[in-house]
């Protein structure tokens, strides 16, 4: 008889240990840096918001597993089924209270940290921003810069050819000095960059992981997004939206250079 009683107890203790181990293990596994190296000004706020969510939900997950494991451990020590631990009214109060606390801790923190970030990110774009129009198509990023006159020429989808990927109207005087670069987006460091996103065929997603920028490009829409790059370098621009059989090879590059190098690049492109 002693063995019959001890067997469920041992099993219960083992299950309790398993739940506690899972909680602790996932907490240890999650306590690492999950972000690529930051390269934009607003990105620190995005990181703070995501870190808060990960820490808050991680703590809740860990506490839940520890409490559940403790309850199983206690229950395993009993030799018979006992009465309810709490009245239905008390259970409802506890559930509602826990739900409110979790909502305030998670959503309240995200709102408090995120509002200033999104206020800047979706706010007024600085007038001195570098202005570039980026058009996604299967399977490339076509980047259209205004020339020295600061005005982009007229474009028309009917004029798109392999050698004219944005459909630039060469009869428009403003088009004469425009610059078009395929899959190569060059910008100056520490200066606002405005990207106007368009899509030629299907939905694409313009993604700069290091700059914490991710925005869909939708056919028929012109969607502005802006950021300030803070680190020179070469960064991949993948398409983060499944856009067809060649989606895997839709990849461009963001080249962040000094202001002097950027001006030299513009002169080189204008003369080519």
Task: Indicate the topology.
Elements: H1 2-30, H2 43-76, H3 88-121, E1 130-137, E2 140-145, E3 179-182, E4 184-188, E5 193-199, E6 204-208, E7 213-217, E8 223-227, E9 233-238, E10 251-257, H4 259-271
Parallel strand pairs: 1-5, 4-10
Antiparallel strand pairs: 1-2, 2-3, 5-8, 6-7, 9-10
Helix pairs in contact: 1-2, 2-3
- Poorly predicted runs are none
What do the pLDDT scores average to?
87
Assembly state (oligomeric): single chain
Derived from helix and strand composition plus strand pairing, the structural class reads: alpha+beta
CATH superfamily of the largest domain: Cupredoxins -  blue copper proteins
The total number of structural domains is: 2
How many beta-strand runs?
Answer: 10
How much beta, percentage-wise? 15-25%
* Biggest sheet descriptor: 5 strands, mixed
Tally of helical runs: 4
Our measurement of the CA-to-CA distance between the termini, rounded to an integer number of angstroms, reads 92 Å
Largest beta sheet: what is the strand line-up? 3-2-1-5-8
Broad CATH class of the largest domain: Mainly Beta
Mind telling me which CATH architecture of the largest domain this is? Sandwich
Shape: elongated
What string gives the helices and strands in order? HHHEEEEEEEEEEH
Q: Residue share in helices?
A: 40-55%
**Rg, nearest Å:** 28 Å
CATH topology group of the largest domain = Immunoglobulin-like
């Amino acid at each position: 008889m002693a063995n019959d009683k001890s067997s469920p107890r041992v099993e219960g203790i083992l299950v309790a240990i398993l739940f506690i181990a899972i909680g602790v293990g996932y907490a240890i596994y999650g306590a690492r840096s999950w972000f690529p190296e930051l390269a934009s000004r607003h990105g620190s706020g995005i990181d703070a918001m995501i870190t808060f969510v990960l820490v808050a939900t991680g703590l809740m997950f860990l506490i839940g597993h520890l409490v559940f494991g403790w309850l199983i451990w206690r229950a395993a020590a009993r030799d018979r089924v006992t009465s309810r631990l709490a009245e239905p009214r008390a259970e409802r109060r506890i559930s509602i209270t826990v739900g409110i606390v979790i909502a305030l801790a998670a959503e309240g923190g995200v709102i408090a940290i995120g509002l200033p970030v999104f206020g800047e990110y979706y706010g007024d774009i600085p007038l001195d921003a570098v202005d570039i129009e980026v058009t996604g198509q299967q399977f490339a990023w076509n980047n259209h810069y205004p020339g020295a006159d600061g005005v982009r020429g007229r474009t028309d989808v009917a004029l798109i050819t392999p050698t004219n990927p944005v459909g630039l109207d060469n009869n428009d005087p403003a088009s004469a000095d425009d610059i078009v670069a395929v899959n190569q987006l060059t910008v100056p460091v520490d200066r606002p960059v405005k990207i106007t996103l368009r899509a030629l065929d299907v939905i694409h997603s313009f993604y700069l992981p290091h700059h914490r920028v991710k925005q869909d490009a939708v056919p028929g829409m012109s969607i502005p997004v802006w950021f300030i790059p803070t680190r020179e370098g070469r960064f991949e621009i993948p398409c983060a939206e499944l856009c067809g059989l060649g989606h895997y090879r839709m990849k461009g590059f963001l080249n962040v250079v000094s202001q002097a190098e950027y001006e030299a690049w513009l002169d080189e492109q204008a003369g080519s």
